[in-house]
Amino acid sequence: MSQPTIESILQENRLFHPSAEFSQTARIKSLGEYRALCDRASADPQAFWADLARQELHWFQPWDSVLDWSDPPFAKWFTQGKLNLSYNCLDRHLTTDKRDKPAIVWEGEPGDSRTLTYAELHQDVCKFANVLKDLGVQKGDRVGIYMPMIPEAAIAMLACARIGAPHSVVFGGFSAEALRDRLIDVEANVVITADGGWRKDAIVPLKEQVDTALKDARVAVHHVLVVQRTGQATAMEPGRDVWWHDLAPTASTNCPAEPMDSEDMLFVLYTSGSTGKPKGVVHTTGGYNLYAHITTQWIFDLQENDVYWCTADVGWITGHTYVVYGVLSNGATSVMYEGAPRGSNPGCFWDVIEKHQVSVFYTAPTAIRAFIKMGDEHPKARDLSSLRLLGTVGEPINPEAWMWYHTVIGGERCPIVDTWWQTETGGIMITALPGAIPTKPGSATLPFPGIQADVVDLEGNSVGVNEGGYLAVRYPHPGMMRTIYGDPDRFRRTYWEHIPPKDGNYLYFAGDGARRDEDGYFWVMGRVDDVINSAGHRLGTMEIESALVSHPAVAEAAVVGKPDDIKGEDIVAFVTLEGTHQSSEALAKELKQHVTKEIGAIARPGEIRFAEALPKTRSGKIMRRLLRDLAAGAEISGDTSTLEDRGVLEKLREG
Ligand code: 6R9
Fold first, then answer.
1. Acetyl-coenzyme A synthetase N-terminal domain: from which residue to which, for each copy (predicted)?
2. Of 68, 56, 280, the residue nearest 167 (C-alpha)
């Protein structure tokens, strides 16, 4: 591979300091305290993680060695240590005053709600675990989970963790085919699902999809455990399918947590790469528990009375770590919401915040932009004064959206943590610590203590200040994936050999482009596969999108490259418009001019295409691959199973 240069063009110099009041009570109170933690972690990383593991988690048996890195890139943490994640999330809180504290506050899309205290959640998890055992699930068996966002999704995950059966959650928006492929790959023999779930005012018939997936003889599932959510007529196959509500009343609440080895597999979560079939990312018990726990505590600054809400679905890593495990391990209150942003209730998120007095709120830029488009009047009509901290995740946030989040939602008083991480890293890697690190709109700021993030070239050398390069991590951390399920070679190739190891020193290649500014702040520019090379300039698509979105007529923008004889690639921008703005030749010209003004002529799109909506994955990431094919006038190639709404693609084709 030749050595490309990645140029960064986004200029953003505003700096926002946390208020003295916020810092005073924060978990990490100052830049000095943050730096001291980083220094300790780099002087003796193993002691740093070991101290935290001892202080923060309950171990049934202590470990022999903190990190075994003798066979890189396969790391082992806290070897021979024994613990159970469900114990750390539940049992240990029952002897404290957290026993009767709400663990899960759930809000259904139609407006129904439920609250489970730690004691109640513990009981349900024990029952659920006993039902799984009765269905023949044993330690080490993989269990598929295909659920709506209801408390039983978390209960199912915790029940699996309790008996040592690794779960593989498949997002409820995935098709029967996608579910089938994942169940085959992970060799699951039991699936947990629901009759259906609510999504955007309609019922998603989950059990029906499971039935379709199970028609394939390669699926080895012999039992389906079904939770009733929607109540519609649901076919049950005798001998294979059972209702949770039939078994729950007689299930025992006594189910001691299985002592798991620190390196026992905890879960497999599928994520798509740029090529090939989805990868089953494997996480194990001890390291993941520690990393989920400490990142949640420090980054979301959890205090005793916080009501914390992360809007992610449990089908994604963000839902695993920051809806369920990290929050409950800290004994905090986790709000769970079944709904998605939708036109029929443009205030749905703000209603939940007002109703449950949410104090810490964590969502994605795509949701923020959707709400910007729906209008400020909706958040403004709600009381959002309970909020004290905001977070974002999933993609780079453009400064425009950041500023809206800061002013309209945060009332200019809430710090924003822009958190960079991946399914592979298990937890947040680059982020502000809200009481300590001043923020800049669009920057994820600095690495979490103990994380040696860097921006490098393809030889693994650090690049200079403000030079673009590849985001990489230099030393193992406890939350890192251990392998790809069934394919350790692919793990090695994809993440550790892209930049060839030198003298046995392995660098984790994240697949994102980034630069570091004069303050050491990271600016993530998007996937390197999304980078455009136009006339010798390698441009992060996000930066051009940011410029477009800063124009008052533009709601959302996605920028891709299109083959061009002279420039190599020309820039094509797909844009959706705000409210009453109409597409026209004149507006297209104005937008091109606007990008030229904001960034420079090197970034001027050759073509602007107006669209009603952009094709997105179900987790809200714009599918640039499809837009690239469209822009090039080519047939759509590759897998479209992760697309949320196929209608969007049809419209774009016609348009
Ligand atoms: C947690 C999650 C990972 C990819 C990652 C990057 C993008 C996530 C980001 C961000 C810029 C942030 N990404 N957070 N880019 N700023 N704060 O989203 O995991 O679904 O595996 O996606 O998402 O491109 O490589 P996952």
1. 34-89
2. 280
Distance 621 CA to ligand 1 centre (A): 9
DSSP string, 62-120: --SEEEEEEETTEEEEEET-EE-HHIIIIIHHHTSTTTTSEEEEEE-TTS-EEEEEHHH
Ligand 1, atom nearest to 511 Cα: 25
Q: Is 402 in the pocket of ligand 1 (CB under 6 A)?
A: no
- The rounded distance, in Å, linking the Cα atoms of 82 and 78 is 9
Picking from 448, 477, 519, the residue whose alpha carbon sits closest to that of residue 299 is 448
Reported as half-sphere exposure (CB side, CA atoms, 13 A), residue 340 has a value of: 18
pTM beyond 0.80: the answer is: yes
Q: How many CA atoms lie within 13 A of 97 on its CB side?
A: 2
Interacting residues of 271 by C-beta distance below 8 A, sequence separation 6+: 278, 279, 281, 317, 422, 423, 424
Closest Cα to atom 6, ligand 1: which residue?
Answer: 395
Distance CA 452, CA 522 (A): 12
Q: What local confidence, expressed as pLDDT, does residue 195 receive?
A: 98
State residue 176's pLDDT score: 87
In this prediction, the residues of the chain whose per-residue pLDDT falls under 50 are: 1-4, 274-275
**CA of 423, closest atom in ligand 1:** 21
The C-alpha atoms of residue 404 and residue 363 are separated, in whole angstroms, by: 14
CA dihedral over 227, 182, 238, 230, signed as positive or negative? positive
Helices (H), 195-319: 206-214, 244-247, 285-299, 317-319
Model pLDDT, residue 31: 98
Residue 548 CB-half CA count within 13 A: 31
C-beta 423 within 6 A of ligand 1: yes
